[in-house]
DNA sequence: TTTAATTCCGTGCACGTTCACGGAAATTTT
DNA sequence: AAAATTTCCGTGAACGTGCACGGAATTAAA
C-alpha cells in the first residue's frame, strides 16, 4: 500500500495471508469462512481503516438495481404528479448510474388498483421499494411480502403501523396545521375563517389532512378563541358548483376575510378569487403545484405551505440507493421534512 | 451489445472499426485523431446513445481529486462557521469517494490573510476551487491565476465581475430585503422601523447587505411611504454598548414596534429583547445560526430569512465535482437559492 | 485406515475506462 | 525516391472488486 493511498483488499490479503476470495466473503458476510480467518480479516480491516472502493464495486457487480415506486398516479398539475417528478430528480448522478427507478401507479380511490400495481411491482423484481400508502390493509399485505423477501422499503407522505420499514419521509401534519393558522391570522385576532373542504367517500382511506385540521383548530382555540370557523364542502370536478358554494357563503357572511384549504387544491378557488378581489383578504393553502404558485405570484393566494412531495420521493430513493449500493442505514428512520413558507416575494426563486 | 445493456466503448469500436484508444481520445477531445475518425465516432455515439460508465471511469483514473474552499473562517456559531459545515454535507456519497475537500480559511477583515490562504491553496494543487469573495482586488488576482491554470472555480455568497467562473450560488440580496420588509410589516402600515446596523471599516470590502437594504427601502417606499426608518449602529464586540444604544433609542422612540437587522447577527439583540419583552413587537433577522434559531423558538425573534450558507457550499462542491469527475457543465451558471421563511412554528423541522 | 462428506479457501476472469507506449501511415523534407 | 517528420492509431496493462469454479484441508463415516 503506497504512502497515502487508500488500502485495498489486496492489502488485507498481505496482512492476513489469506486470499481475495476469502476477504471478499467476510466483507459481504456470506459465510464459508472459518472463525479464525473471519476474525483475522476483521482485525486487518480495523487496523488499515479499509473502506471498499465504491467505483470498483459498482463496476464489478454491473450496475442496474431497480427501485420500484408504488404511488398514486394523477393528472399533470396534481399533487401526485408533482411527486412523480421527484423520481428523476435524484441528486446523485453517480447513484443513478447504478440504479433504475420505475413508477408503478395506482388509483388513489380504488383499492383494487393498488393490488394490481403491487402485482406488477413484484414481477419487476425490485431491490427496493418506495411506498405512498393510501389503503392500510392493502399496504400491509405488500409490506409483509417485502419483509419476507428481505426487500427494503420506505414510506413517503404518510406511514402505517409497521416495524420493518427502512425509513419514512413526510411532513409533520399536525404542526403544519398549526403553522398554517399562524400564517393565516398573522398572530392577530380574527373574527371569521372559512375552511373549504373536499367531499369524498372515505371508505377505508386514510386522510392525513385530518391531523392538519386538528393542528389548525388547536392553534385557533389557543390564540383566537372567539373566532368562528365556517366549513363548506366542494366537489373538485364541478367548477360551477364551487363558485356557487362560494357565492352562497359570502352572501351570508360578507365579513369573512380569511380563507384556508388543508389539501393541495387551493387553486380550485382561484377563478372565484379572481372574480371577487378584495383588499386585506388572506388566503392560505398547501403545496407547490404549478397552479398554486401562479396564484401566489398573482396575489390571489397569500401564503403557500409546502412539503415538497417531489423531494420526499427523491430522498426516499436516495436512502434506498445508499442502502442497496453502499449497505448504509439512513441516519434517521423518521424524517420530517421542512415546511416551506411561500409568499409572492420568495416564490420566484423556488 | 446485449439486448437492453448500455452500450460501451467497445460497441463504438465495432461500429466504426476504430480502436478503444481512438474512441477514448475523441471522448475526451484531446486531439491526435483525424477529422474523419472523429466524425465517425461522434456519429456512433449519437446512434448508440452512448454514455460513459462513471464507475469504470472513476476506477481507472484513480480517484481523489481535491477541491479547495477559499472562504472566511470564523468562530463556531457564526455565519461562516455554519457555511463550513456544508463542506462535509455533500449530498453525494459516491462523489465524495473520488473527491476530497479542504478548507483554506482567511480573516474576512484582513486582505493580507486572503493572500496567504490563496498561496497555500495553490500549493495544494486543487482540481477545483470554491471562493467566497470578500475583497475584490485580491479575488481578481486569484481567479486570473486559476483561469490560466484552467482550474474551474465557483463563487458562493457573492460574486465579482468575472467572465470565467463555472457557477455562482447565492441569495438574491435585493429581493431578500424586499421579502424582509414584507415579513416585518405583514403588508400593513407601520409608523416606525428600527434598523440596527454594524459599524465597520469598509476599506475595500464589498458588503452584500447594501443590496438587501436597498430592497428593503424600496418596499417601504412603495407600501409604507409614511413610515419613518431609524438607524442605529452597534459594535458586535461590545455587548454593553449594544444594550446602551438600544436603551437610548427606545427612550427617545417608545412607540417603535418593528426591529430589523440585515446581517446574520440578530442574536446580538437577544439579551436586550429578553429584558424588554413587549407584546406585538416584530423582529426580523437573517440566517439560520444556532443562536438565531433559539431566539426564534423562544419568541424573541419573529421571523428569520435563511439563505443556507451551508447548502451554498454543498451545491458549489457538487457542481465542481460533476465538472471534474463527469465533465458536466452546471445547468445554470447563476443560481439564486431559495429564501426560507422561518417562524417559531416551523423552525423545529429545519 | 480408507473413503466419503463437508468445510473452507485460492485462482482467474470479468466489469468498462484510462493512458502510456510504440508503431503504421501519411506528409514533408532532402 | 529515400529519409525525416508529423499525424494518427492500436495494443495492453492497469484500476479494485465480485463471483464462479474447482481443489485443498478438515472432519465424519465406512
What's the arrangement of secondary structure elements?
Two copies of one chain form a homodimer.
Chain A: H1 9-16, H2 20-27, H3 35-48, H4 54-61, E1 65-72, H5 79-85, H6 95-98, E2 99-106, H7 111-123, E3 128-131, H8 136-148, E4 153-157, E5 167-170, H9 173-185, E6 192-198, H10 209-223, E7 228-234, H11 239-252, E8 258-261, H12 270-275, E9 282-286, H13 290-298, E10 303-306, H14 309-326, E11 334-336, E12 340-342
Parallel strand pairs in A: 1-2, 1-3, 3-4, 4-5, 5-11, 6-7, 6-8, 8-9, 9-10
Antiparallel strand pairs in A: 10-12
Helix pairs in contact in A: 1-3, 5-14, 9-10
The structure holds a DNA duplex (30 and 30 nucleotides).
Task: Describe the fold and architecture.
Two copies of one chain form a homodimer. The mean pLDDT of chain A is 88. Chain A is of the alpha/beta class and 350 residues long. In chain A, the strands form two sheets. Chain A has a six-stranded parallel beta sheet, with helices on both faces. In chain A, 41% of the residues are buried. Chain A folds into three domains: 9-50; 59-171 and 309-341, 3-Layer(aba) Sandwich (Rossmann fold); 173-306, 3-Layer(aba) Sandwich (Rossmann fold), CATH 3.40.50.2300. Helix content of chain A is 43%, strand content 18%. In chain A, strand 3 (128-131), helix 8 and strand 4 form a beta-alpha-beta unit. In chain A, helix 1 (9-16) packs across helix 3, helix 5 (79-85) packs parallel to helix 14 and helix 9 packs across helix 10. At the A-B interface, helix 4, helix 6, helix 9, helix 14 and strand 12 of A face helix 4, helix 6, helix 9, helix 14 and strand 12 of B. The structure holds a DNA duplex (30 and 30 nucleotides).
